[in-house]
Amino acid sequence: MATDADAPNEDRRKYEFRKVIEELKDFEGSGTQLVTIYIPEDKQISDVVQHVTQEHSEAANIKSKQTRTNVQDALTSIKDRLRYYDTFPPEKGMVIFSGAVDSGGGRTEMVTRTLESPPQPVESFRYHCDSNFLTDPLEHMLADKGLFGLIVLDRREANVGWLRGKRVEPVKSASSLVPGKQRKGGQSAQRFARLRLEAIDNFYQEVAEMANDLFVPERHDLDGVLVGGPSPTKDEFLDGDYLHHELRDQVIGKFDVSYTDESGLYDLVDAAQDALADQEIMQDKSQMEEFFENLHTGEEATYGFDATRRNLVMGSVDRLLLSEDLRSDVVVYDCPNDHEEFEVVDRRHATPEHECEECGEKAEVREREDVIEHLMAIAEQRGTETKFISTDFEKGEQLLDAFGGIAGILRYSTGV
Ligand SMILES: [Zn+2]
Asked: Which residues form the eRF1/Pelota-like N-terminal domain (predicted)?
């Protein structure tokens, strides 16, 4: 099966982001001394340096000597990082975190992290100094997936736009020449009604054309189309076959909204929250359905670390399914007789001793790493697609609890 070459890397980047964010979230400063800076792509690095320099001199007024020193150290460290960049930050901007964090027993440790090119553009410059790092905006970016087409209309006006993640982008609007219900004197009632229907029909065609022009070229990346407006306008519009047939199949719902100007697009997204949440895990659901079907009816399924890893190495895995909530490391052991063995351990636990299962000799630790990165690295070499599966539905939970968070859909049966 052909896979999009960029897709595995995108998933991997997202995973790595999530990991760094979880790490940063756990850090605490003993005072208001952890600095976070969000830098949009169009912000000049020299402006940021200037801002940081100014904060550095203002920090001289901080009363607590320890906090003062820590804040200034953090700012110096940020300035050092900024030297690596030319005029502007990388595409989509970047975020820098720096500060002295509690490392237990009254000790502190200096931590600096830079996250470049987040999943969605950094929208505005933010300087934040607190006892925690500011991770919320990044977490929202990670939670946001999907591309949806938006249409709101009544008989007088219409707006179309995009929903990218959680961001609404109005694109085009149209207004109609549909006459009101009141006819002018001298016009026959019949003729008036006919003209009015014609005008409505023309307007629906115009709106559909606007939507088709915008959405059809993106239809393969589109996760759905939402339509909003008062009744019966939106129903007439959808029932009337105005939209391109491929878009019609992608309509995931119609919703009552009172406004059909730009603000109506936002109302539409609000009204569609439940449908959007379902949509988000639909793809995860269908992956798990396929996995269970293969497991029950044939042998084109694998699960657990050892079997999945062996299948991955053989190149027999079509899709690697990993639980989004899997937080484990794998320890690789070598025994004196050259047997390679693995143990999956909770990330917070110490590395266990290991006896070789084949020869019983005491094995030595070769390395310990994140189990997800370990498996994804093999998957990438073998052209296997990796899918992260949410635990927000029953079979997703089962993946984590019953299969150790690791499974695969095979290209062919391997007997492993
Ligand atoms: Zn051995």
From this structure: 5-143
The rounded Å distance from CA 141 to ligand 1 centre is 46
Closest CA to 304 of 383, 358, 375, 352: 375
Structure tokens at 384: 């296997």
Q: Ligand 1: distance of its center to the CA of 362 in Å?
A: 8
pLDDT for res 413: 92
d(CA 322, CA 262): 39
Q: How many CA atoms lie within 13 A of 139 on its CB side?
A: 9
d(CA 266, CA 326): 34
d(CA 151, CA 247): 12
Q: How many CA atoms lie within 13 A of 397 on its CB side?
A: 3
Q: Contact, 14 vs 119, CB < 8 A?
A: yes
Measured CA to CA, the distance from residue 143 to residue 158 in angstroms comes to 29
Is there a contact between 41 and 99 (Cβ–Cβ < 8 Å)? no
- The Å distance, Cα 332 to ligand 1 centre, comes to 13
In sequence order, what are the residues at sequence separation of 6 or more whose Cβ sits closer than 8 angstroms to the Cβ of residue 330? 305, 342, 343, 344, 345, 368, 369, 370, 371, 374
pLDDT (tens digit, 9 = 90+) per residue, 238-272? Answer: 999 899 999 999 999 999 999 999 999 999 999 99
More reliable by pLDDT, 282 or 90: 90
Distance 340 CA to ligand 1 centre (A): 7
Please write the tens of the pLDDT for every residue from 184-209. 666 788 888 888 889 999 999 999 99
Antiparallel, parallel or unpaired: β 167-175 and 301-303:
unpaired
Q: Is the dihedral of CA 249, 252, 254, 257 positive or negative?
A: negative
pTM higher than 0.90 for the full model? no
Indicate whether 6 pLDDT > 70. no
pLDDT-derived band at 234, boundaries 50, 70, 90: very high
Question: How far apart are the CA of 401 and the centre of ligand 1, in A?
Answer: 30
